[in-house]
Structures are given as structure tokens and as C-alpha cells.
Amino acid sequence: AETVLITQQSHEELRKVLDANKTAAPGQQRLVVVSVSPQSRASLAARFQLTPTDTARKLTAFFKKLGVHYVFDTAFSRNFSLLESQREFVQRFRGQANSTQALPMFTSACPGWICYAEKTHGSFLIPYLSTARSPQQVMGSLVKDFFAQQQHLTPDRIYHVTVMPCYDKKLEASRPDFFSQEHQTRDVDCVVTTGEVFKLLEEEGVSLSQLEPAPLDSLCSSASAQEPTSHRGGGSGGYLEHVFQHAARELFGIHVDEVTYRPLRNKDFQEVTLEKEGRVLLHFATAYGFRNIQNLVQKLKRGRCPYHYVEVMACPAGCLNGGGQLKALGTPSKALLQHVEMLYGMVRTEAPEEVPGVQELYRCWLQGEGSERAGHLLHTSYHAVEKASSGLSIRW
Ligand code: SF4
Fold first, then answer.
1. Which atom of ligand 1 is nearest to the CA of 325?
2. CA of 363 to the centre of ligand 1 (A)
3. Which string of DSSP letters, residue by residue, matches 79-143?
4. Tens digit of each residue's pLDDT (9 = 90 or more) over 77-114
5. Smallest Cα–Cα separation from 88: which of 243, 255, 289, 209?
6. What is the pLDDT of residues 182-213, one digit of tens each?
7. 316: preceding bond cis by omega (within 30 degrees)
8. Distance CA 200, CA 209 (A)
């Protein structure tokens, strides 16, 4: 099943849709939208020796040359994922969440981890998983709901492609939770990895460096896209830092300027604490890679998990090191990863609360923060999978 999925969701499928558009009768074309992740941008920037901003603009020019209509940055949808995670954590901490939600709260933006949690631990881990959608799937809601309305199109008339650092994002996009029965369409139709974009460039005989840059598109008039943006925190989205700083302020009135990580077993398992008068108020951690994840789950099962929140990522070193990223050519892979991390960190960061357009979308599109509509479009649910009934294999 995974093989079928990967051939269905590939750069070849994108090419087919673009070719079909060229010969389609007027009015029968599909609007093609590509949303690029900041991690993919950094990986391509390293390969082409460009800045991430130049990479984003040149990639926009490339996709538009191929016939893509709009190119967005998933850092924009990540604002919603971060804000929803912050709100969800504070609710859980205050005991205001519903009875199916527990502490510690685990991030859920990594489909490799979610797949493992649902299949290996049945329903045990589900109450701990944040229900906030990942940036890819919030982008799915933005494009197929908000943007479709703006364009006066039904969602199935839009073909939405995301560019991502890993193959597991294809599995995430194909979850039934992200399929509209009403319109018979997925929120994200096709996921292309960074490596597949590189293949597409090669097949087209295009070197990114030689293209004239083009501005990125923005999803609404008050959102100033033009150039890519990012968030503070690590290359996996900065969840821990945003939730930590927000919770410190909201729950204890403490302003945290800088988050200090303390390595535990290794640099993929680190913790962060907020302390006052010798008392630990908040205890957060990052757990990257399956060795650390297994350790974390064992602690939880034994009732010895001291954390309130854990940023969990399946790949060692996180998303910048995802399986869909470009591999090192000649240089040691560790040096490449450091270079990609440096490039990722070069992009201007924004606080999600202050990003132009975000509050307006909460008001106009979602009918307010914490509304039923925001719950429906920005959150999801998880399902325990019986191992015997699963035809999918998980790679790690
Ligand atoms: Fe994908 Fe790895 Fe990031 Fe998880 S940690 S979302 S598997 S790249």
C-alpha cells in the first residue's frame, strides 16, 4: 500500500496534472497550488549554494514556468499549528481539556511518530497526542477551504501539492481524516519530497541558480508573503520553544527570553525547565529518533515520565535530516546537516501572534479563536490500528 501511495503521490503525478491542464478545455483546468516547506528550501539552498530566500524565489519561478498557478510557504500555515498547540497545552495544563486529553502532551506534526504511536501502542498513546494539525495539513485546510472560497472554486478544482522533507508526509496527506467526502478530494493531493523536486529540476534541465527569482504568493491580501519566513526554535518547527514561552507567560506570568536546553542521554534528547524558588513549574523535553522515543514511551508506561510537554520527531536531528532531503555529495553527511541547519536559521523569524493576516483569518475564516470551526479545520483525531489489519509498513 505504501508503494502505491508513493507512486501516486510523486513529481510524475504533478507533471501529469500540469500536462492535462495544457490540453484541457477552457474552464476545465485545475488550479495548481504548491506549498513549500522551510526544511526543503534549506536543503535545496545548500545544494545550489543559494540563500534560502533566493531559493524560495527561484523555486517559485521554476514552478510557475511549469504551469503552477500559486506558490505558498508552509511557514504561514505553521503559525496556526503553533498557536493551536499553545492554546491546547494551556488548556490541558489547567485541566480544561476534555476527558480524552492528557498530560504530558506530545507533538503530532511528525507522521512517522504518529504512525508508530497508533500502530505499536494501540490506544495507549492517543490521549497524549496534540490534536493540532501539522503545518502541511493546516495548509490543506487553508488552500481547500479558505483559498478555494476566495477563488470561487469547489475544493476538487484545486490540485494542492506540498514539498516536504520526508516520505511519511505522503502517508499523512492520505489519512481519511483529511479527505472531504462531500467534494471527494484530499486537503493535500500530492506530496513531493525535496529529492523529487531536485529530480524534476534535473528532468527539466533547469539549474535553480540560473533562474530569475519570482515573489512568493500570499494567501490573503493582508499577509505579506513575497519572501519566506520562519519561526524561532529548531528545524522541526520550533514547537517546544513556542509552547514553553507561551505557557510560562500565560500560566505563571513569567517572560522567557531565551530557552536553554539541557542535553540528557544525547543531543536528540534534551530538556527545558521553568523554575521558581527551587520549584519546577514547567518541564519540557525533545525526543528525536526512535531510540529516544521508545525510551520516552517506556518512561510513560512505568509512570515515570516527568514531562508536561515533549516535542517528538522520528528522525534523529529532526526534520532537516528527513529521509526526503537531498543527500550529501562528497561532504560528510554531518557537515551537510550543519550547513542546512545554518541556512534554515538564516531566514527572518516571526512570532505567530504577530504575523500579518493570521488574526484576520481567525476572525473572518474561522469565526474566532477556539471556535467550533477552528476545531474542525485546525485539529484532527487519531485511531488505534490493529497490527494485523494494517497493510502499511513503517520505516525507521
Ligand atoms: Fe518527517 Fe522525519 Fe520530520 Fe518526522 S522528523 S516529519 S519523519 S522529516
1. 8
2. 31
3. HHHHHHHHHHHHHHHTT-S-TT--SSEE----HHHHHHHHHHSTTSSGGGB--BPPHHHHHHHII
4. 999 999 999 999 999 999 877 777 889 999 999 999 99
5. 243
6. 999 999 999 999 999 999 999 999 999 999 99
7. no
8. 15
Please check the confidence at residue 364 and state whether its pLDDT lies above 80.
yes
Block residue for cell numbers 485539529: 379
Q: Is 394 in the pocket of ligand 1 (CB under 6 A)?
A: no
Buried b (16+ CB within 10 A) or exposed e, 343-364: bbeebeebebeebebbeebbee
Q: How far is ligand 1, taken at its centre, from the CA of residue 314, in Å?
A: 6
Contact (CB, 8 A) for 5 and 170: yes
pLDDT of residue 225: 61
Q: Walk across the sheet containing 190-193 and list its strands.
A: 70-73, 31-36, 158-164, 190-193
- Distance from residue 122's CA to the centre of ligand 1 (Å): 21
What is the SS3 assignment for 300? helix
pLDDT in tens, 295-327: 999 999 999 999 999 999 999 999 999 999 999
The amino acid that residue 367 corresponds to is Q
Residues 369 and 124 sit within 8 Å (Cβ to Cβ):
no
What are the residues whose beta carbons fall under 8 Å from the beta carbon of 304, sequence distance 6 or more?
none
Give the pairing of strands 279-288 and 269-276: antiparallel
Round to whole Å and give the CA distance between 341 and 346. Answer: 9
Query: For ligand 1, atom 1, which residue shows the shortest CA distance?
Result: 166
161, 190 in Cβ contact below 8 A?
A: yes
Residue 26 and residue 379: Cα distance in Å, rounded? 36
Can you give the pLDDT at residue 392? 45
The Å distance, Cα 152 to ligand 1 centre, comes to: 34
* Arithmetic mean of pLDDT, 158-182: 96
- Helix axes 38-48 and 333-344, enclosed angle (nearest 10): 120
Sheet arrangement for strand 279-288: 105-106, 309-313, 279-288, 269-276, 262-266
Q: How far apart are CA 46 and CA 340, in angstroms?
A: 6
Q: How far apart are CA 324 and CA 340, in angstroms?
A: 14
319 lines ligand 1 (CB under 6 A): yes
Distance of CA 157 to the CA centre of its chain: 24
| Average pLDDT score, the chain | 93
pTM metric for this prediction:
0.94
